[in-house]
Amino acid sequence: MAIPIGFTASLVVVAAATIACVVLNTLIFIRVNNSTIHKDDKDYCPNVTFTTIAPDTSTAHASTMTAPDTSTAHASTTTAPDTSTPHASTMHSKVKTTTIITTELTQPYRSPSTKLIHVNDTIYCPSFGEADHSPAWQKAASYLMSAIDQNMDPCEDFYAFTCNNFIKHAKASGGSQSTFDQAQADVNAEILKALKSVNISDDKNWSLTERVTKAAVYSCLSTIKSANSNHAEQILNDIAKWFGGIPFLNVTVDDGIDLFKIMGAMELTHSLPTLMSSWVSVDSKNITQNALYLSQPTLPIPRDYYVLPQFASKLEERVTLIKKMLLLFSKNVLDDTSPYYLMIKEAAEEVAKFEMDIAKASWPDTEMRNYAQQYNPYKLDDLAKAYPSINWKSYFENLLISVENSQQVVSNQVVVAQPSYIGWLNSIFAGNHVKKTTIVNFMITQLLFEEADFLSSDFRKLAIKADYVRYAQKRGRGITRIGRQVTRRFDGVSSPSAMCLDVVMTYMPYGPGYVYVKSQKNRDEIVKDPKQETELIIKSFQRMMSTLKWMSDTSLEKARMKVTELVKNFGWPQDLFGDFKNFTAVDAYHKLDYGPIIDAYIKNHSDFYPIINLMRMGFENREAFRLITQPANRSNFLQSPALVNAWYQPERNSITLPYAIWSTPYYSYEYPKSIKFAILGGTVGHELVHGFDDEGVQYGPNGSLIGCSWHQCGWMDGKTKTGFTDMAQCVVTQYSTQCCPEKLGNVHCANGATTQGENIADLGGQQAAYLAYTKYMKMQGHEEKRLPALEQFTPKQIFWIAYGYSWCTSQTDSSLIKQLLTNVHAPSSCRTNQVVQDIPEFGQDFGCKMGQRMYPLSEQRCKVWVGR
């Protein structure tokens, strides 16, 4: 989401066994007997205590609750087309039994080990509500109970209250993981299950899209299982073809080498930009057409590691990893590498120094939030005049090889995003102050890290140690780089199916998406479900805006117009997927670029390398460069419907809720509305408010940059702009100074400027979702029933608990540091606690005392898109 939700979320390793440890325990629910204790008694406050008992303990009045088994079986792989199949995760199909004990007592009972939440508060404990024991509500309760730590006071640390037990058991199983990972593992299991019956050779009963998807996924799994894939020789041939040889192995680079031709070829065939990056998206000032954008490349490690002195040790680590990678490759292509050891060491240092130069020339993330400054259109002739030392013709000819009349197309307009960086790049070729051997060694190094997962296991181990993320995933999609990953998710060993689906979903997004959505039998009903909530949330946000004293009537009308013109993508692209019986459209979409995958699979199903090369080139052509010849489409989903996330595209003024977001633990059709509004409603609100964060307000109702001066764009007048800036600065300051976690060596706080868009979306979106939920309850005329074994929590409290649960995350220290340095999302603990601190209804619902950490004084709160 852009999570994300935002939500983008995505930072962490799938570990579907996260909750298994806790649900193995038996839950004991002790309730005061109705006949002796009156629930309306002002001194009565029911409480739940959780106790572990032996499996064979006899109980009175025992009922059962099903808790999800989050263990995931490792996928096995096929040895021939359509013979054996991966074993899908058992997350959906198996449950473990948890017992709830109802014990009758003759006097009020309160466990001494369970901390009560302000027992005397009438808001916290107005009555003992009736529970709904339906399977879906039991399942929802089991998820929340597996994470809650009732020894923590929610008014002091709400994240710890909702997530401590999740984190405890996640750490026990190792790695980094989140509830998002759990949901994605569920979706992955459904995809694997659906692929099992697909016959790759049967083109009558199965779509090309399904057959290609199975071939790609199964080939990846088979390659990992065989563990003998090593394409060093093939990569050596590519290097020889492009560069003539390897400088760090004492080969002289030809003075006449055309590095821009090679840059274009590497970007197209390996989805690997090196010295600059190109992509196609909506023309921000002519939204009927697409444009080619040029930008600086994404760095291998965080920019701060290169430019700040306190991270010198990180740069030394980078040098060591480069040296090991070059040495390992040399050992794979030479019998004796000893004569070249010093050359390799020197090359590694030069490459790292060159990466540092690129970092210094690059714009930091805080400067890449102003899109007026990043919209610099050029005709191709003018581009050549402005940057004459860059061979644009050669670069574009090799990059756009599949685009008809490519030179004519780009001659009309190219948009340069960071002109000062392109100027620096021009200067290093004009002045020859960087050796060509250094540039070639740099490009080869990037190639080796990109290909490491599909070379030998030794290469993969180095990529894991380097926390290397494939470039297409690291860059993200669209103007605002939606979905970009800053940390490596999978190692390919503990979770082969997760890694393979992640790869295929990146380079062929609609393949797994089609397979997944088709497999869901009640998809049409489910996709209707969130539409009512969405409309209520939109209306709530509009009411919030009307309370703003700093917004003028003129700006308010423009804001309302932007909401009215919002494109809402639900579930899957209807025109592309059709009725799932006639697959003409979806197959036509995939045939040209991805169709050859089937032949490659039949030729050698255990060799994924030629298949991933087909997918990468298909991705660049189908999902990017060929779009330049097509009109812009505001309904473009951009990413896979099988991705557990959601996103807002400012250049299209659209929100997208892929079908996968409606999966457990976040969603069930029968879940309480409190949970639906909290998690998915909060997601809708989050993405909606992205249209009104510091980036979104630069774009108008149809997605175009609007009201642009020489240095900024936006639809707000002066008074409104001042009020918005004050609001945004409050958020920036708040997240920068209230640091969490507190002990991380050189890094202590999130970057409030970099994360402000996500923080504004969190605060405004969750408040809109809460108001929509309270509106829904008023429409119904009554509260919902309580969750079983959590009856002491009101529906409004469950709303907040579900929100906190959705962000439960266990991270390694290194992952957390990297997130703080590079991610547009603040750490989960920050974003959860800060949101509830700034929304006073939370403190009221939990009966917190004014001045407690989660219920600060009004003047200490940031009021985001609301006037009170």
Explain what the structure shows.
This protein has 868 residues and is mainly alpha-helical. The protein has a domain at 232-455: Neutral endopeptidase , domain2 (Neutral endopeptidase, domain 2), CATH 1.10.1380. 47% of the residues lie in helices and 6% in strands. The strands form four sheets. A four-stranded mixed beta sheet has the order 4-5-7-6. It has a three-stranded mixed beta sheet with strand order 8-10-9. A hairpin with a 7-residue loop joins strand 4 (277-282) and strand 5 (290-295). Helix 21 packs across helix 29 (756-780). Mean pLDDT is 85; it is low at 2-126.
| End-to-end distance | 27 Å
Full CATH superfamily name of one domain: Neutral endopeptidase , domain2
The largest sheet has its strands arranged as 4-5-7-6
Which spans have pLDDT < 50 for at least 5 consecutive residues? 2-126
* Contiguous helical run count: 33
> What coarse outline follows from CA principal-axis ratios?
globular
CATH class of one domain: Mainly Alpha
- In this structure, how is the largest beta sheet organized? 4 strands, mixed
Q: Tally of extended strands? A: 11
Please tell me how large the radius of gyration is. Answer: 28 Å
Q: Based on the structure given, which CATH architecture of one domain is correct? A: Orthogonal Bundle
Strand portion: 5-15%
Under CATH, the topology of one domain can be stated as Neutral endopeptidase, domain 2
> What structural class do the secondary elements suggest?
mainly alpha
Mean pLDDT metric: 85
Q: Which bin fits the share of residues in helices? A: 40-55%
